[in-house]
Amino acid sequence: MKLRTSHYLIISFLAAFTYFYSKDGLVATSVLYTAIQFALPLALAAMVGVMCERTGVVNIGIEGTMLISAFTAFFAGAILKNTVQGMLVGVFTGAMMGLLLALMAVNWKMDQIIAGVIINILAAGITSFYYRQNYSIPSTLDPIDLPVIGAWPILGPVLSFHGPITYFGIFFILGLWFALYKTSWGLRSRAVGEHPSSADTAGVSVSRLRYLNVTAAGAVGGLAGSYLALEAVGIFERGFTAGKGFTALAIMIFGRWNPLGALAAALFFGLTQAVTNQLMIDEVVEIPPQFINMLPYILTIVVLAISAGKVRPPAAEGIPYEKEKS
Q1: Entry's CDD domains (predicted)?
Q2: Residue 238: phi, psi to the nearest 5?
């Protein structure tokens, strides 16, 4: 039987849980809880890539979208003294980055790799130039206690008491999978990403659908950036996203451009980081912190090496569409 992403996820979670639970059940719960926190922004960022590339638009500007959205979400929350309003500003910023990418890729027919690089450079420059210290938000987004889920044995404490973006993100990913494979919007999106000329012949507006999907994907990237700034840590620094947008691209490929596959891959990445942190806390291994910071990039290289040649991207990915003249 050929192992898929979901199988790797199940094996990894069972191995980690068995190891830590044999030592201390509370430690095992903590590791899995932390894995979800690490995985959520990567999963949301991977959804940005799925939504764009399923429609035929390459988006390597996820890193920049997350960075500038985290920046605007944090400082809007600090100035307005309201983290919810800050989150909305972050989502709007992400949508504007998506709209900019759609403008460059669809209207101007720029090379989409270059368009993504422009977004990354723009975000890095703006956030570095306008960054100011001594700002703080009133508090991070409050976690939600789910008494019904929290009462479940073993998994209850793992799945309960996360922030609102975490729960929304999980439901969004499940909803995106359903929409992508079970609705007319999903069928049209996949058709535009595979055979845009055939979709156009069938009456689907390729340009309009790409604009819609890429802009909406930008909003999701804004939500991922807002999660980092307002729910996960409650601060902002230069280079805050630390390569998570690029890691999300590897997760998207490992997940085969499937929302559930990408979610499973993100959980695998999150679990790896959570296990490494716990091993350091337990002093089982002595790993320099610089290596921990390198871990996402090392895993990205490994995943791409494993996945290269074994997955097929959408056929029209990265190719500007020119309407055939009759």
Answers
A1: TM_PBP1_transp_TpRbsC_like (cd06580)
A2: -60, 140
pTM comes to 0.91
Q: What angle do CA 298, 247, 83 make, to 5 degrees?
A: 130
Q: Where are the domains of the chain?
A: 5-132+150-307
Answer whether residue 219 shows pLDDT above 60: yes
User: pLDDT tens digits, residue range 220-230?
Assistant: 999 999 999 99
Q: How far apart are CA 112 and CA 319, in angstroms?
A: 8
Instruction: Give the DSSP letter string of 240-306.
Output: TTTTHHHHHHHHHHHTTT-HHHHHHHHHHHHHHHHHHHHHHHTTSS---HHHHHHHHHHHHHHHHHH
- DSSP code string of 33-82: HHHHHHHHHHHHHHHHHHHHHTTT-----HHHHHHHHHHHHHHHHHHHT-
What is the per-residue pLDDT for 29? 80
pLDDT at res. 46: 97
Confidence of residue 2 (pLDDT cuts 50, 70, 90): very low
> Which CATH number, 3.40.1000.70, 1.10.10.10, 3.10.20.70, 1.10.3470.10, labels domain 5-132+150-307?
1.10.3470.10
Cα(first)–Cα(last) distance of the chain, in Å?
Answer: 49
Query: Rounded distance, CA 205 to CA 207, Å?
Result: 6
